[in-house]
Design brief:
single chain, alpha+beta, Aminopeptidase, five-stranded mixed beta sheet, 26% helix, 18% strand, binds coenzyme A
Protein backbone atom coordinates (compact mmCIF):
# COMPACT_ATOMS: atom_id res chain seq x y z
CA UNK A 1 0.00 0.00 0.00
CA UNK A 2 1.14 3.56 -0.54
CA UNK A 3 0.07 6.99 0.57
CA UNK A 4 -2.03 9.20 -1.65
CA UNK A 5 0.11 10.61 -4.43
CA UNK A 6 0.67 14.30 -4.91
CA UNK A 7 2.86 15.96 -7.46
CA UNK A 8 6.36 16.03 -6.08
CA UNK A 9 5.99 12.97 -3.88
CA UNK A 10 7.03 9.40 -4.31
CA UNK A 11 4.73 6.62 -3.21
CA UNK A 12 6.20 4.77 -0.28
CA UNK A 13 5.08 1.99 2.03
CA UNK A 14 3.12 2.74 5.19
CA UNK A 15 5.18 3.15 8.34
CA UNK A 16 8.44 3.53 6.47
CA UNK A 17 10.94 6.21 7.47
CA UNK A 18 10.28 9.55 5.74
CA UNK A 19 11.98 9.72 2.38
CA UNK A 20 13.43 12.93 0.96
CA UNK A 21 10.93 15.14 -0.81
CA UNK A 22 11.97 15.28 -4.44
CA UNK A 23 12.76 18.64 -5.99
CA UNK A 24 9.57 20.26 -7.19
CA UNK A 25 9.56 21.30 -10.82
CA UNK A 26 7.29 24.33 -10.43
CA UNK A 27 6.28 27.07 -8.07
CA UNK A 28 9.15 27.04 -5.56
CA UNK A 29 8.36 28.91 -2.35
CA UNK A 30 10.32 29.20 0.89
CA UNK A 31 9.57 25.57 1.68
CA UNK A 32 9.93 24.24 -1.64
CA UNK A 33 6.97 23.72 -3.46
CA UNK A 34 3.63 23.80 -5.02
CA UNK A 35 2.91 20.51 -3.36
CA UNK A 36 -0.25 19.32 -4.99
CA UNK A 37 -2.35 19.79 -8.08
CA UNK A 38 -5.44 20.40 -5.95
CA UNK A 39 -5.33 24.16 -5.74
CA UNK A 40 -3.28 24.97 -2.69
CA UNK A 41 0.32 25.67 -1.86
CA UNK A 42 2.22 25.07 1.36
CA UNK A 43 4.29 28.06 2.38
CA UNK A 44 5.72 29.76 5.42
CA UNK A 45 3.18 31.70 7.48
CA UNK A 46 3.34 35.49 7.24
CA UNK A 47 2.47 37.93 10.00
CA UNK A 48 -0.78 38.87 8.30
CA UNK A 49 -1.90 35.19 8.33
CA UNK A 50 -1.74 34.95 12.12
CA UNK A 51 -5.40 35.69 12.84
CA UNK A 52 -6.57 33.15 10.23
CA UNK A 53 -4.27 30.52 11.73
CA UNK A 54 -5.54 31.25 15.24
CA UNK A 55 -9.13 30.95 14.05
CA UNK A 56 -8.33 27.64 12.37
CA UNK A 57 -6.68 26.33 15.54
CA UNK A 58 -9.62 27.47 17.65
CA UNK A 59 -12.08 25.59 15.44
CA UNK A 60 -9.95 22.44 15.36
CA UNK A 61 -8.74 22.65 18.93
CA UNK A 62 -8.34 19.34 20.68
CA UNK A 63 -10.06 19.01 24.05
CA UNK A 64 -6.72 17.57 25.18
CA UNK A 65 -4.73 20.68 24.24
CA UNK A 66 -3.45 22.53 27.29
CA UNK A 67 -1.44 25.51 26.09
CA UNK A 68 -3.35 28.58 24.91
CA UNK A 69 -3.04 29.76 21.31
CA UNK A 70 -2.44 33.51 21.65
CA UNK A 71 -1.61 36.16 19.05
CA UNK A 72 1.59 37.14 20.89
CA UNK A 73 2.77 33.53 20.85
CA UNK A 74 2.25 33.27 17.11
CA UNK A 75 4.10 36.54 16.50
CA UNK A 76 6.97 35.35 18.71
CA UNK A 77 7.14 32.09 16.81
CA UNK A 78 7.28 33.97 13.51
CA UNK A 79 10.09 36.23 14.77
CA UNK A 80 12.18 33.63 16.58
CA UNK A 81 11.73 30.56 14.43
CA UNK A 82 11.20 31.86 10.95
CA UNK A 83 9.65 29.29 8.66
CA UNK A 84 8.51 26.97 11.47
CA UNK A 85 4.86 27.79 11.02
CA UNK A 86 3.59 26.45 7.71
CA UNK A 87 0.23 27.13 6.12
CA UNK A 88 -1.74 25.60 3.26
CA UNK A 89 -2.96 28.53 1.19
CA UNK A 90 -5.68 28.35 -1.46
CA UNK A 91 -5.78 31.73 -3.19
CA UNK A 92 -5.21 33.56 0.07
CA UNK A 93 -7.52 31.39 2.18
CA UNK A 94 -5.72 29.46 4.93
CA UNK A 95 -6.94 25.85 4.80
CA UNK A 96 -4.41 24.27 7.14
CA UNK A 97 -1.47 24.94 9.42
CA UNK A 98 1.37 23.12 11.15
CA UNK A 99 4.23 24.05 13.47
CA UNK A 100 7.42 22.22 12.50
CA UNK A 101 9.90 23.26 15.18
CA UNK A 102 13.63 22.62 15.34
CA UNK A 103 15.25 22.91 18.77
CA UNK A 104 18.79 22.30 17.59
CA UNK A 105 18.60 18.59 18.40
CA UNK A 106 15.30 17.14 17.24
CA UNK A 107 12.31 18.16 15.18
CA UNK A 108 8.85 18.46 16.70
CA UNK A 109 5.48 18.93 15.08
CA UNK A 110 2.59 20.65 16.77
CA UNK A 111 -0.82 22.12 16.07
CA UNK A 112 -1.56 20.39 12.79
CA UNK A 113 -5.06 21.38 11.69
CA UNK A 114 -7.04 21.43 8.45
CA UNK A 115 -10.37 23.17 8.00
CA UNK A 116 -13.19 20.64 8.41
CA UNK A 117 -14.67 21.10 4.96
CA UNK A 118 -11.28 20.53 3.28
CA UNK A 119 -10.20 17.38 5.07
CA UNK A 120 -9.25 14.15 3.25
CA UNK A 121 -7.81 16.09 0.31
CA UNK A 122 -4.20 15.50 1.27
CA UNK A 123 -3.67 18.92 2.86
CA UNK A 124 -2.57 17.52 6.23
CA UNK A 125 -0.09 15.20 4.56
CA UNK A 126 1.27 17.99 2.34
CA UNK A 127 1.85 20.12 5.45
CA UNK A 128 3.67 17.29 7.20
CA UNK A 129 5.87 16.58 4.18
CA UNK A 130 6.75 20.26 3.87
CA UNK A 131 7.45 20.36 7.62
CA UNK A 132 9.77 17.38 7.22
CA UNK A 133 11.63 19.17 4.45
CA UNK A 134 11.97 22.28 6.60
CA UNK A 135 13.28 20.23 9.53
CA UNK A 136 15.62 18.20 7.36
CA UNK A 137 17.15 21.44 6.10
CA UNK A 138 17.77 22.51 9.70
CA UNK A 139 19.59 19.24 10.41
CA UNK A 140 16.86 17.07 11.92
CA UNK A 141 17.02 13.32 11.50
CA UNK A 142 14.15 12.44 13.86
CA UNK A 143 10.77 14.06 14.34
CA UNK A 144 8.19 13.73 17.12
CA UNK A 145 4.51 14.55 16.73
CA UNK A 146 2.27 15.04 19.77
CA UNK A 147 -1.01 13.19 19.40
CA UNK A 148 -3.67 12.71 22.09
CA UNK A 149 -4.23 9.02 22.84
CA UNK A 150 -8.01 9.44 22.51
CA UNK A 151 -7.97 11.04 19.06
CA UNK A 152 -8.43 8.16 16.71
CA UNK A 153 -8.68 10.21 13.53
CA UNK A 154 -5.47 12.07 14.30
CA UNK A 155 -3.75 8.82 15.26
CA UNK A 156 -4.83 7.22 11.97
CA UNK A 157 -3.52 10.24 10.08
CA UNK A 158 -0.08 10.12 11.74
CA UNK A 159 0.10 6.37 11.32
CA UNK A 160 -0.58 6.69 7.60
CA UNK A 161 1.97 9.51 7.35
CA UNK A 162 4.66 7.14 8.66
CA UNK A 163 4.66 8.08 12.37
CA UNK A 164 3.89 4.95 14.41
CA UNK A 165 3.27 5.31 18.13
CA UNK A 166 6.43 5.06 20.23
CA UNK A 167 5.94 2.08 22.58
CA UNK A 168 9.22 2.62 24.40
CA UNK A 169 9.30 6.27 25.43
CA UNK A 170 6.57 8.43 26.97
CA UNK A 171 6.37 12.15 27.55
CA UNK A 172 6.94 13.93 30.86
CA UNK A 173 5.80 17.52 31.20
CA UNK A 174 5.91 20.44 33.63
CA UNK A 175 4.25 23.81 33.25
CA UNK A 176 6.43 26.86 33.87
C1 LIG B 1 -5.82 15.16 11.37
C2 LIG B 1 -6.02 16.16 10.21
C3 LIG B 1 -4.99 17.26 10.31
C4 LIG B 1 -5.84 15.39 8.89
O1 LIG B 1 -5.85 16.33 7.82
P1 LIG B 1 -6.32 15.92 6.36
O2 LIG B 1 -5.97 17.02 5.44
O3 LIG B 1 -7.75 15.51 6.38
O4 LIG B 1 -5.43 14.62 6.09
P2 LIG B 1 -5.08 13.98 4.68
O5 LIG B 1 -6.17 14.23 3.69
O6 LIG B 1 -3.71 14.42 4.30
O7 LIG B 1 -5.06 12.43 5.06
C5 LIG B 1 -4.02 11.57 4.68
C6 LIG B 1 -4.38 10.17 5.16
O8 LIG B 1 -4.44 10.14 6.59
C7 LIG B 1 -5.47 9.22 7.00
N1 LIG B 1 -6.52 9.96 7.70
C8 LIG B 1 -6.71 11.29 7.74
N2 LIG B 1 -7.76 11.61 8.53
C9 LIG B 1 -8.25 10.45 8.98
C10 LIG B 1 -9.36 10.12 9.82
N3 LIG B 1 -10.17 11.05 10.37
N4 LIG B 1 -9.61 8.81 10.08
C11 LIG B 1 -8.83 7.83 9.54
N5 LIG B 1 -7.76 8.09 8.72
C12 LIG B 1 -7.48 9.39 8.45
C13 LIG B 1 -5.99 8.59 5.73
O9 LIG B 1 -5.20 7.44 5.46
C14 LIG B 1 -5.71 9.67 4.69
O10 LIG B 1 -5.62 9.20 3.38
P3 LIG B 1 -6.99 8.94 2.52
O11 LIG B 1 -7.82 10.19 2.63
O12 LIG B 1 -6.47 8.68 1.15
O13 LIG B 1 -7.67 7.76 3.17
C15 LIG B 1 -7.46 16.76 10.24
O14 LIG B 1 -8.40 15.72 10.33
C16 LIG B 1 -7.68 17.72 11.39
O15 LIG B 1 -7.42 18.91 11.26
N6 LIG B 1 -8.21 17.21 12.51
C17 LIG B 1 -8.49 18.05 13.66
C18 LIG B 1 -7.22 18.49 14.36
C19 LIG B 1 -6.32 17.33 14.68
O16 LIG B 1 -6.74 16.27 15.13
N7 LIG B 1 -5.03 17.57 14.44
C20 LIG B 1 -3.98 16.60 14.72
C21 LIG B 1 -3.39 16.92 16.05
S1 LIG B 1 -2.13 15.76 16.42
Amino acid sequence: MGIKLHRGFESRPLRSAPSPVPACPTGRTGYGCRLTVEGFVVRACRRQDASAVLELWQRARSEHATTADRPDDVQRLLSQAEGSLLVADADGVILGALIAAWDGWRGNMYRLAVRCEHRRRGIGLALVRAGEEHLRRQGASRITALVAFAEEGAAAFWESAGYPQDREIGRRVRNL
